[in-house]
Specification:
Blueprint lengths: L8 H26 L2 H28 L15 H23 L7 H13 L3 H30 L1 H15 L6 H4 L2 H18 L3 H22 L1
């Protein structure tokens, strides 16, 4: 059972501002000093991932004397085997269902196999670690552990799940691309499933694994279509 978190609305605002301030300040630096858009995006995601992970943990410890368990980083109700099987199964199932709905082509060929191996190896690099491990872990800590923990305690499970999913999708929109708006519903579903996994397991680990698996599957499919 997820316990009610003690932090208040002002804590949510301050943690969010602090976590986003440095990444946002890195944007003009990237454009005008580095003059490299791709490097700028990489720097923004790197900083945001680190801060979204550690700021909530440090905040809970510093101001409320609570450990990482208060943010859902705990064993929970499920065994390790159940966590892995259910999380991977839901990630794969969602990916296949989404592929059918949006018409994503799933062709098993040499390109797909090669890209799968490349991405598996890329996890050993900083970029791969950032994208496939650190980013999903940090997002689950902030959106589900910190944000949903607060909303759930004030407005209940159903409203809490919906609001955190909407905010999660909002954070993933590219406001300079109209095509990104069309992905809003997909992002909401991802946020909802992550929240439900956290709710029923009483742990963020299933949501983290599901989130990472989903990013991985989408990445190899997109690369295969490009090639």
């Amino acid at each position: 059972m997820i316990s009610k978190t003690p932090w208040r609305f002002k804590d949510i605002c301050l943690v969010t501002i602090i976590s986003l301030l440095i990444p946002i300040l890195s944007v003009p630096f990237s454009f005008f000093v580095l003059k490299n858009k791709d490097l700028g995006e990489y720097l923004f995601v790197s900083l945001a991932s680190v801060l979204f992970l550690f700021i909530p943990i440090l905040w809970a410890k510093r101001y409320y004397r609570l450990g990482k368990e208060s943010l859902g980083i705990r064993k929970g109700k499920w065994s390790v085997k159940s966590v892995i099987l259910i999380s991977v199964g839901i990630g794969l199932g969602y990916f296949l269902l989404e592929s059918v709905v949006i018409g994503r082509k799933l062709i098993i060929n040499q390109v797909l196999i090669t890209n799968t191996l490349k991405i598996l190896l890329s996890i050993l690099s900083f970029g791969g670690f950032l994208r496939f491990i650190l980013a999903p872990v940090s997002e689950e800590v902030y959106f589900r552990g910190f944000l949903y923990g607060y909303i759930r305690g004030r407005l209940g499970v159903k409203i809490g799940l919906c609001i955190q999913a909407l905010i999660f999708s909002f954070f993933h929109l590219d406001f300079f691309s109209f095509s990104s708006i069309s992905l809003l519903f997909q992002r909401i579903l991802i946020g909802l499933l992550s929240g439900i996994l956290y709710e029923v397991s009483d742990s963020l680990y299933p949501a983290m694994i599901y989130h990472a698996i989903l990013i991985y599957l989408i990445a190899i499919t997109v690369l295969s279509q490009v090639n």
